[in-house]
Design a protein that fits this description.
With about 575 residues, the chain is of the alpha+beta class. The protein has a domain at about 310-540: Dipeptide-binding Protein, domain 3 (Roll), CATH 3.10.105.10. The chain is about 25% helix and about 20% strand. It has 16 helices and 19 strands. The protein has helices at about 5-10, 10-20, 85-95, 145-155, 195-200, 205-210, 265-275, 290-295, 325-335, 340-345, 375-385, 415-430, 445-450, 500-510, 515-530, 570; strands at about 65-70, 100, 115, 115-120, 130-135, 170-175, 180-185, 230-235, 240-245, 260-265, 280, 300-315, 350-355, 405-415, 435-440, 460-465, 535-545, 550, 575. Strand 4 (about 115-120) and strand 5 form a beta hairpin.
Length: about 575
C-alpha cells in the first residue's frame, strides 16, 4: 500500500503511548492437503497447478491459482502494524482475517459494505455504537466467531502500540449477546459513516490470542487463524505466501482455489514474470512509463491508466527559528516552483496538479483554493516587500534579521527516482527568486528518521509522497498537520501548529453528517493553503497491468487492480 503505510506505521508504536492518535489513518507439491515444509534451503515457491471443477455452461468456473507479484517483501505475520507497511501485508489482513467492514469501490465509498459488522446503530451524540455481527462465521480452526472476539479485539488489539487511536478510546465495551456488541467511545465518532479503521483493522480470535493478551506482539501467529475467505497454507518470509480458499467461508467463496503472493524485488524482474505468465497481476501501484511499450505489445496483458494514490508534496520544517517561519517566504517558494514542469519531467506527463490532501474528484475537495501558479516575478515581489534583499550582491537574498543568505537544505529519500527528479528540478528553479538549496538524496531509513522528527532540525525543506486514500478513509492523513502540542507528535513532519486547525481535526472525527464534515474539511483546506506548511505538487497517474488470458472479472480501482484498499480482484477474478 505503498508509502502511506510504510511511513506512518514506522512511528505508530510511539503514538499510542502519547495517547493522542487518530485512525490512520498479505515448495512442496501443490497436491498435498496438509504439508510439512521441507528444510528452509529446499523450499521453493509452489509451481502452477489448476484444479477446475466441472461447471455448467454459463456458470462462473471455480478453480485455478492466481499469482500476484510484488516488489516489496512481507517479513512478518505477527499482529503488528508492520503488516500495513506493504500492500502484501494489508491484503493478508483482508483475505485471511476479516475486517469490520469492506472497502467500497468508487464512487460507492461512503456506504457501509458489511463484513463482520453486518449493521450498526449510533447514538445521537456519536458515543454509543451498537454493532450487529455476522452470525454464521467460524474461525479457520472451526471455532465459532462471536461477540467475545470483537470485544477482545477492542480491548487488546486496539491497545497494542500502533493499532490504537484517539477514536478508539473506549469507556465501555458490553457484550449484549453472542452477535451484538455495544461500545461507548470517550470522544465520540462520526455518524456520517463507519470509521476508516473498520476497513483496515482485523478482528482477531480470542481463543488464540488470549494467552498473549498483555503482549500481542510476542505471538508469532504462524498459523494465522482468521475468519477470512482464504486460509494460510504456507509462508516463506520475504519470498512468498500461499493461500487457499476457505471452503467454509461464511460469505461468498472466492472463485479461485489458491492465491500465491511472490516477491520479485524489482520492477524489471516482476515485468519479466508478468510477460511470461508466471504471475497474473502486479500487486500494487503501476509500472514505469518506460516499460509501457513492451507490455502494450503483449495481447494477453491489459494496460489501463488509473488515478494514483500518492500525492507528492514539498514541506517546511517549522521547528527551528529562521526565515521559513515567515509565511511570505513560503508563499514566494510556492510561486517559484513550476509544477507543470515537474509533471512533465519527473512524471513524464503521467500526473495531475493537486492542492490539498483531498483528491480532486473527492466531494470533500474545496474547488477554489489558491493555486500559486508559477510566477517568479510575483515571488520576487513578495520577497522584496518582506525585506529579503540581496544585500551583499552574490545573487542570493539575505535574511533582514541575521544578514545570512537564504540557503536551505533540500532533501528527499533515494528510494524513488520521482522524488529525486522533483528535488533536482526545484533545486534548479529557486535560484531565479534568489533562494539557494543544497540538495541531498538520503537513504530511506535515515530520511524517515529525520522526516518524522522535526525537532532534530536535520531537515529544512523536504519532498515526499503520501497516500491519503479516497474519502472517507482519508481522515487519518489530516493528523500529519496537527500540532505537536495537540496530538501530532511523531506524525507531523512540519511541526506546524494552528490552533483552529487542531480544533477542526477533532471536530472532523465527530462530524454527524456529510455536510458538516464537508464544511470542516473546507476550512481545514483553506487554512493549509493560506499558511502553507506544505506545498502540494502532483498526484501520479499509474499504469496498471494484469493478464487476461486465464482470468477475467478483474476490478481495476484507484491505486490499481490489487492494492492495500482493493482485494476485490482477488475475490472476484475467475477462470475464463
Amino acid at each position: 500500500m505503498k508509502k502511506r503505510r510504510n511511513l506512518l506505521a514506522l512511528v505508530g508504536t510511539v503514538i499510542l503511548l502519547l495517547g493522542l492518535l487518530a485512525p490512520m489513518m498479505q515448495c512442496a507439491p501443490a497436491a498435498e492437503e496438509e504439508m510439512t515444509p521441507p528444510p528452509e534451503e529446499e523450499v521453493t515457491p509452489p509451481s502452477e497447478e489448476e484444479v477446475t471443477p466441472p461447471t455448467e455452461e454459463g456458470e462462473i468456473k471455480y478453480g485455478g491459482r492466481l499469482n500476484v507479484g510484488f516488489t516489496t517483501p512481507q517479513d512478518t505475520l505477527t499482529m503488528d502494524m508492520k503488516l500495513m507497511w506493504t500492500n502484501w501485508g494489508c491484503l493478508y489482513l483482508m483475505l485471511v482475517y476479516d475486517n469490520y467492514a469492506l472497502y467500497g469501490i468508487n464512487p460507492d465509498t461512503y456506504s457501509h459494505i458489511p463484513s463482520l459488522v453486518q449493521s450498526y446503530e449510533v447514538s445521537e451524540d456519536g458515543k454509543t455504537w451498537t454493532l450487529h455481527l455476522v452470525e454464521n462465521a467460524t474461525w479457520h480452526d472451526g471455532v465459532p466467531f462471536t461477540a467475545e472476539d470483537v470485544a477482545f479485539t477492542f480491548e487488546y488489539l486496539h491497545d497494542t502500540p500502533g493499532w490504537g487511536g484517539h477514536n478508539k478510546d473506549w469507556e465501555e465495551v458490553e457484550i449484549i449477546d453472542d452477535y451484538t456488541v455495544k461500545a461507548v467511545n470517550a470522544v465520540g465518532l462520526s455518524t456520517a459513516y463507519a470509521p476508516g479503521w473498520w476497513r483496515w483493522d482485523p478482528v482477531i480470535p480470542k481463543h488464540i490470542f488470549e494467552p498473549y493478551k498483555d503482549d500481542i506482539l510476542s505471538f508469532r501467529n504462524e498459523e494465522s487463524i482468521g475468519t477470512g475467505a482464504f486460509k494460510l497454507k504456507e509462508f516463506k518470509t520475504g519470498e512468498y505466501m500461499w493461500l487457499v480458499a476457505n471452503e467454509d467461508y461464511w460469505g461468498q467463496r472466492p472463485y479461485v482455489d489458491e492465491v500465491v503472493f511472490r516477491n520479485y524485488g524489482t520492477e524489471e524482474t516482476l515485468l519479466m514474470a508478468l510477460q511470461s505468465g508466471e504471475i497474473d497481476v502486479f500487486g500494487g501501484g503501476g509500472i514505469s512509463p518506460f516499460s509501457l511499450e513492451d507490455v502494450q505489445a503483449n495481447p494477453d496483458i491489459n494496460v489501463e491508466m488509473m488515478p494514483g494514490l500518492g500525492e507528492a508534496y514539498l514541506a517546511f520544517n517549522l521547528h527551528p527559528d529562521g526565515p521559513l517561519q515567515d509565511k511570505a517566504v513560503r508563499h514566494a517558494i510556492a510561486y517559484g516552483i513550476d509544477r507543470d514542469r515537474i509533471i512533465e519531467m519527473a512524471y513524464v506527463g503521467y500526473a495531475e496538479r493537486i492542492d490539498s490532501w483531498c483528491y480532486p474528484e473527492s466531494p470533500m475537495h474545496k474547488p477554489d483554493l489558491p493555486q500559486y501558479e508559477y510566477n517568479p516575478d510575483k515571488a520576487n515581489e513578495i520577497l522584496d516587500g518582506a525585506g529579503y534583499l540581496d544585500t551583499d550582491g552574490d545573487g542570493i537574498r539575505n535574511d533582514p534579521t541575521t544578514g545570512k543568505n537564504l540557503v536551505f537544505n533540500l532533501a528527499t529519500s533515494s528510494s524513488s527516482t520521482d522524488y529525486v527528479k522533483t528535488c533536482t528540478l526545484i533545486n534548479e528553479m529557486l535560484p531565479a527568486i534568489g533562494i539557494k538549496t543544497e540538495f541531498s538524496a538520503m537513504d530511506p531509513d535515515t530520511y524517515l528518521d529525520y522526516l518524522y522528527n522535526p525537532v532534530s532540525d536535520k531537515l529544512e525543506i523536504f519532498v515526499y509522497v503520501e497516500d491519503p486514500s479516497p474519502d472517507p478513509w482519508s481522515d487519518w492523513v489530516w493528523q500529519e498537520d496537527v500540532g505537536w502540542d495537540a496530538g501530532g507528535e511523531w506524525w507531523n513532519p512540519t511541526y506546524w501548529s494552528n490552533p483552529r486547525f487542531n480544533e477542526l481535526w477533532v471536530a472532523n472525527s465527530c462530524a454527524k453528517t456529510l455536510e458538516e464534515k464537508k464544511a470542516i474539511l473546507y476550512e481545514m483546506q483553506e487554512l493549509m493553503a493560506e499558511e502553507l506548511p506544505r506545498i502540494f505538487l502532483a498526484r501520479g497517474e499509474i499504469i496498471t497491468v494484469y493478464r487476461t488470458d486465464k482470468f477475467e472479472g478483474w476490478v481495476n480501482e484507484i491505486g490499481g487492480p490489487v492494492s492495500w484498499l482493493n482485494d476485490w480482484s482477488i475475490l472476484r477474478a475467475h477462470l475464463k
